[in-house]
Design brief:
By secondary structure, the protein is an alpha/beta fold. About 40% of the residues lie in helices and about 20% in strands. β1 and β2 (about 20-25) form a beta hairpin. About 50% of the residues are buried.
Length: about 375
């Protein structure tokens, strides 16, 4: 059996809510979940999922091109396309399945992909599966991207970036990336896993955040299992792009459809988000409170105005020790270690929710100060 350098162990979570859980029998406050708007336990979301299960069962029982595409899937597709200001959308089983299916469908061996150095593992795997030539540009460095786009030739060009980077919490400089891509005729693929329901006045994501309309040829990917409190993922873009995915994206064609209750839950969450924009205000106020509080007590908290707030510790051992000390104090925020982050960049990645209370955040800050 392989001897893993950074051994990981599963912890069992029970009695889970948006901010609370019992971890291996210990009652804790969660500061590691991606339920950014506190919708996973919302009564309307649970009710919508329950009604869908009662009417059509839970498992879809088949791939979407066989009998697994129901009215629930179609309604969610329509809702997501409208929400993302796109012509059409398509559902996938997870963010990983989306990135490893979409990227190889829109780029091939004769193409060039320009990928941000800190892109998620699912993007890296999707790029590799495409067979395209992969060029790495420095993280959020649009000048370096523009230089590489000018230098490289030989096929169609695709720029791939996260909108909000999952380990650092910073935001891609979208206007500059679009300008560089347009200058050199490159298409754009945006992973909005951590920006959908988080960025923009109404939570529509990075394009709304920068007050830009998605142009033709732009593909947006988003997940349903974070701010929307459900499970699954989606692509949103031009109708012709979505037709291409339906016919060529292997992770779509050869996977069983999302359960109908997941679709119903996500659609209900979309409705709540659009009806209750104050959830976004609470989310960002909580993020500011934690980020500022960590800085005041001497921690160098990273992040760029999002609910992802990493504290860089250094070594894996130090990060694990801090995480275990937090758990003993009643807070759950696991250590992030290689291969997720580079050596020397191990961290505690705090994430906040709209439904954390000020007392939750103050208690965490008190524990961090003592530690």
């Amino acid at each position: 059996m392989q001897d893993f350098k950074y051994q990981r162990f599963l912890k069992t979570a029970e009695k889970i809510s948006s901010t609370r859980a019992s971890i291996d029998g210990r009652e804790v406050v969660l500061f590691c979940a991606n339920d950014y708007l506190g919708l996973a336990n919302h009564p309307e979301v649970i009710s919508a999922a329950s009604e869908a299960a009662q009417s059509s069962g839970f498992g879809a029982g088949s791939a979407p091109l066989i009998s697994g595409h129901t009215a629930y899937h179609e309604k969610l597709r329509e809702g997501l396309a409208g929400f993302k200001s796109a012509e059409s959308s398509l559902l996938f089983g997870s963010g990983y399945l989306a990135n490893t299916g979409i990227i190889p469908a829109i780029a091939g061996k004769d193409d060039i992909i320009f990928s941000d150095r800190l892109n998620h593992a699912s993007i890296i795997d999707g790029c590799r599966l495409s067979g395209a030539r992969i060029i790495i540009y420095e993280h959020n460095d649009h000048a370096h991207l523009k230089k590489l786009l000018a230098e490289k030739s030989g096929g169609r060009k695709l720029v791939v970036t996260e909108a909000v980077f999952s380990m650092d919490g910073d935001i891609a400089p979208l206007p500059e990336i679009i300008s560089a891509a347009n200058t050199y005729g490159a298409r754009l693929y945006i992973d909005e896993a951590h920006s959908t329901g988080v960025l923009g006045k109404t939570g529509r994501g990075i394009f709304e955040h920068f007050k830009i309309s998605p142009g033709p040829g732009v593909m947006q990917m988003g997940t349903l299992g974070k701010a929307l409190g459900s499970y699954g993922a989606f692509a949103a873009g031009d109708t012709e792009y979505i037709k291409l995915l339906i016919n060529t994206a292997r992770s779509f064609i050869f996977s069983t459809s999302l359960p109908s209750p997941s679709c119903a839950a996500a659609l209900a969450a979309l409705g709540i988000l659009q009806r209750e924009p104050e959830r976004l205000a609470h989310l960002h106020e909580n993020a500011r409170m934690l980020r500022d509080g960590l800085s005041e007590i001497g921690y160098k908290a990273k992040g760029g105005g999002t609910p992802i707030i990493p504290v860089i510790v250094g070594s894996a051992d130090e990060a694990v020790k801090l995480s275990e000390a937090l758990l003993a104090s009643g807070f759950y925020a696991p250590a992030i270690r290689p291969p997720t982050v580079p050596e020397g960049q191990c961290r505690i990645r705090f994430t906040v929710s709209a439904v954390h209370t000020p007392s939750d955040i103050n208690a965490l800050l008190k524990a961090m100060k003592e530690l």
